[in-house]
Amino acid sequence: MTTTFAQLGVPSRLADALATQGITSPFPVQAATIPDGLAGRDVCGKAPTGSGKTFAFGLPILAKVEKAKRGRPRALVLAPTRELAEQIKKELAPLARNVGRHVFAVYGGVGYGGQISAMRKGVDVLVACPGRLEDLIEQGVVVLSVADLVVLDDADRMADMGFMPSVMRLLDQTSPVRQTLLFSATLDGDIAKLSKRYQTDPVRHEAASVETDELDAVHHFWLVDHHDRTQHTADLINEFGKSIVFTRTRRGADRLAKQLEKLGVRAVAMHGGRSQNQRQRALDAFSSGKARALIATDVAARGIHVDEVASVIHFDPAGDHKDYLHRSGRTARAGATGTVVTLVTHEQKRDVLKMQRDIDIDAPQETVFDYIADGSRTPEWYEAVQTASKTTEGPTAEGTRYTFLRALPQGEVVNDVEVSEFREPSVVAFTSRSGPTPFVYRYRVEPSGAGSRVILEGSITGEGLRGPAAFLAPLAGKFFKRGMAENLKALKARLES
What is the DSSP letter of 393? Predict the structure, then answer.
């Protein structure tokens, strides 16, 4: 039987407000933590982004928070980024109105005037980034001494961003008799120390971690040439729809957004070098569907919460496994599915492979062959190595000629070899005049816009192969071991027979 918010103890006015939004059943992290939060217990929750933790701490806060006096909030929620602070406010403010409470967010990148005015009118639940909050305290606008409900959201991110000294200074100013709710993707290191210092006998809960296969996303790692990344990104956006693309630098985000626009993909950039108003306009354009792609840097990774993001594209691979998880958590949120694609240049293969091992993502690094039905997009640096005229299942027309392309060193010549069956899994075999060793690969075909994309998965092993492809598997294994010219000749003969 499905648990309801009312059964967890959530007051009817809040539960009814959730129901009007179509939210009737709690997510696991909410079901686990809300009862303890309502009971006044300190909570230490390990929960990834997208798990529903905003309501996990927000509902107990709104159910219990008292009315505040001017400049003296009764509840404080600390968040690492402007986007996350604004998102928390947007999710909680409509619910707060149902219980006669006011939620407001303060962060840098905007003027002080509106924030000072709001605090002087009275804010019951203050959502804040540490830096701006300390500025307002220094100006005498905010006093935290009566804040007896405190939330630390994405505490590990605040630690990564160097906010821990500021966070501790702020916590030291809150009421000594308080309830503290801490949520983080990890609970070790600095987070464990923080919990020990500022929580009293906390109850610990762990939601499914994005460091496991609980993240319901399909992960791909594509080996591509550096100069092809923009076109691959455009193709992916056209295929999947609403996508968030991550770059390493602000300049890279701006440049990619302009390049995608030239390719007919409406894109907006969002990073720390833009004002809050510019960032909000970009996020609004993406959320509303006016823009199909949001190009962002890591600073925005945790603060972006947009429903129905179909894919996350790592245009530049993440710096480490934590950044990969935070970026990728923008899709497949709260029970939805999604696709995550990392574009990997050959120089980045080793670092990305190490990151994959750290996260335990067992996905091959795939060499991508472009499929171009009419040849209009064939780059000069590509050589056609295979052409097959076959009927396929799917959106493509019968009798279309398919061109398989591979990036080749200058001057390398490749022999054409006919593919006898165009089904998954299938095999393509080709050789180079520079050496006797044949290359025999298994590939799969995926829809891509109006045609198909051919993805090379690696040398075949024979497992799962059918029909004409099956006899190639043991032959290929023998050839790779011996690598003799006569074997190459025999392979060619078998393919032509």
Answer: S
C-beta separation of 397 from 253 below 8 A? no
Residue 232, both tokens: 């691959």
Based on DSSP, count helices (H) and strands (E) in the chain, helices before strands: 16, 19
Phi, psi of 188 (to 5 degrees): -110, -175
**Mean pLDDT in consecutive groups of 10 residues from the start of the chain, 497 residues:** 86 93 88 95 83 90 96 96 89 95 93 95 96 96 97 90 93 96 88 94 76 64 86 86 93 95 94 81 90 86 73 93 83 76 91 89 68 34 28 29 30 30 36 35 45 42 33 34 38 46
Q: Report the distance separating Cα 282 and Cα 154, nearest Å.
A: 23
Element (H, E) at 382: strand 382-389
Contact 224, 345 (CB under 8 A): yes
Quick one: how far is CA 100 from the chain centroid?
A: 35
Closest to 405 (Cα-Cα) out of 369, 374, 375: 369
Rounded Cα–Cα distance for residues 309 and 311 (Å): 6
Rg (CA), the chain: 27
Count CB-CB contacts under 10 A for residue 431. 19
Rounded to 5 degrees, φ, ψ at 269 are -105, 150
d(CA 456, CA 442): 6
The two beta strands, 243-246 and 311-314, are: parallel
Closest CA to 292 of 311, 319, 277, 320: 311
Give the sign of the dihedral formed by CA 412, CA 415, CA 418, CA 419.
negative
Q: Using an 8 Å Cβ cutoff, are 247 and 268 in contact?
A: no
Report the phi/psi class of residue 140: left, alpha or beta, with left for phi > 0 and alpha for psi in -120 to 50. Answer: left
Identify the CA nearest to 332 among candidates 205, 210, 185: 210
CB-based contact 440:469 (threshold 8 Å): no
pTM: 0.60
